[in-house]
Write a structure and sequence with these properties.
Helix 1 packs across helix 3. This protein has four helices and three strands; from the N terminus they run αββααβα. By secondary structure, the protein is of the alpha+beta class. The protein is elongated and about 70 Å long. The longest helix is centred in the last third of the chain and has 23 residues. A three-stranded mixed sheet has the order 1-2-3, sandwiched between helices.
């Protein structure tokens, strides 16, 4: 079992904050949807690699376009990250689409539908 590392947690949080700032304010690529958020960042202990989980509030095309735009701007993002965070190594960034928010919204809608159908069936007929 992997133990939690305070330093690693702090680095992950700082990289996540800076990636969010860079994506929302610095990048001018029209493919990147304005409602893009960084949901989680996992930096390896040697600071060589980083997985950034991205969530896009939009349709399938917006998600694929955003992921493509971020992958093409990886060099710029990495350079800006190196300027803003003082780390021994600047990690290689891999962007991964995070579907968890979309999944949670869909499940919430399904639960609401079931509850409303249940309430409709319990109403007494007049």
């Amino acid at each position: 079992m992997k133990r939690t590392n305070i330093k690693g947690t702090r680095i992950n949080g700082e990289v996540q904050k800076e990636l969010s700032r860079i994506i929302s304010r610095e990048i001018k690529d029209p493919r990147i949807h304005p409602m893009t958020s960084v949901t989680q960042v996992m930096v390896t202990q040697d600071l060589k690699e980083c997985k950034a989980y991205i969530s896009v509030l939009g349709d399938e095309k917006a998600q694929t376009d955003t992921l493509e735009g971020l992958r093409s701007a990886t060099g710029y993002i990495r350079r800006e990250l190196a300027h803003s965070i003082n780390l021994r190594n600047t990690p290689e960034i891999t962007f991964i689409m995070d579907q968890s928010i979309e999944y949670a919204i869909n499940m919430s809608k399904k639960i609401d539908d079931v509850i409303s159908k249940q309430k409709d069936s319990e109403k007494p007929e007049e």
